[in-house]
Amino acid sequence: MGWRVCWLNMISGLRGKRSKNENNNFAPDILIVPAPAGSPNGDPALDNAGRNAGSSARDPAGTERRHHPPSRKKLIETYPNFISGYAGNHLIFKDKTKMLWDDGIKNKSFKTLLDKPDLKDMFTQKYTAGLLREPLASNFDPGRIRYEPFFLKMYGATEKAVEKNLVEITWCPKLVGQRIRVTKINGIDKKLAQISKELDEHPELKRYLTNIGGTFTWRNIAGTHRHSMHSFGMTIDINTAYSDYWQWACKCSNENAVIKYKNRIPQLIVDTFEKYGFIWGGKWYHYDTMHFEYRPELIQ
């Protein structure tokens, strides 16, 4: 029992120790000590002591910082220029603004997830990189659930605000040579330039890469009040002549329609985009095989 008392005393003594962070604010240090020998996961009483110390009045977000669920951690890691952390059910941005993580509403319908999600809802469905190996379940659309305020904050809340960060790149200079406008936020222009460079070495893919279907267009998704992700300049549609879209197939816009999957986009194109953090609309039940959007937080 002596080591336990020693441990608790050590934590108590360190509670008052504070360090200065990059914003010149003071925050408590986080103490990390290995678990005692012979206890694979640490003693429960010791674990409770550590948690209590981390979530004390002086450090209310201590436990949250050390125990981020994978989804929150992925957001923080993939958007380091914008997000500084998480505390009190809020994502914390570097400008010190906060955004609610979980609105507490349970058992949302698919329509509600599309129309009124929170940040947490964006991770309801798992997007898996690589070859699509099995049929998609009805309404399985990982990436279509988007908390719009998050993207408005990063890329711009108005058309003019987004346009300020748009740059032109040449898409596949050897095979296509088309000029397209994309955002430089999150280095997306550089990532698309690299994707373009790699695909440009595959003349067999030219017909899919010619006549880019669209990048930046400030608009709503047809029939909804939701912004198209094209509004942010972080999305690209490749050649529509070799693409397939669920509404074209069913000749409807009914999200509840029974849809037969169809795809003609080669896997090499999908793999190249995913490598740089872009998800593919061909992995949705409501498929959109021309569509790639920058969502690195979702890629497993």
From TrEMBL:
Residues 37-74 are annotated as: Disordered. Gene3D superfamilies: 3.30.1380.10. This is Peptidase M15C domain-containing protein. One of its GO terms (molecular function) is peptidase activity. Residues 223-294 form the Peptidase M15C domain. InterPro entries: Peptidase_M15C, Zn_M74/Hedgehog-like.
